[in-house]
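Researcher: Structure prediction, please.
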Amino acid sequence: MIDTTEAFFARLAQRGYEPLLHNVSGTIRWDIGDAGSWFVTVKNGSLTVSRETAGADCVFACSREDGSLTVSRETAGADCVFACSREDFDRMVVGKQNPTTLFMQGKMKITGNLGLAQIFQRLFPDESQASGEQG
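Model: Predicted structure follows.
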């Protein structure tokens, strides 16, 4: 079974550029229940995705040949922080839950730049997973 959370961030990193975020810049941290944390840095639509690995024994870095994408260990702060359970995050990814509804129900906490949070929700649901099973 595919891990929905991991797959979402892997696909986001593979994109390298997201047209829906072409005028957006900032750093978003996702704290997802027992799945851990991810950082997504957007700079005029160019995406960098990194995994928070506090306490890890190794640091990793990866980049595409054209230089448009890097994946690395991050510990820096974020302009916007989302926090929710893994189950709720996976439901957003597959289109079974609306991010705004989760926030209004108190199931997702957002701190920092709320404008950035609102714009980032354009990435949900992940069309490549919307018809798939969550895992």
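Model: The CA atoms of residues 41 and 71 lie 10 Å apart.
Researcher: Thanks, that helps.
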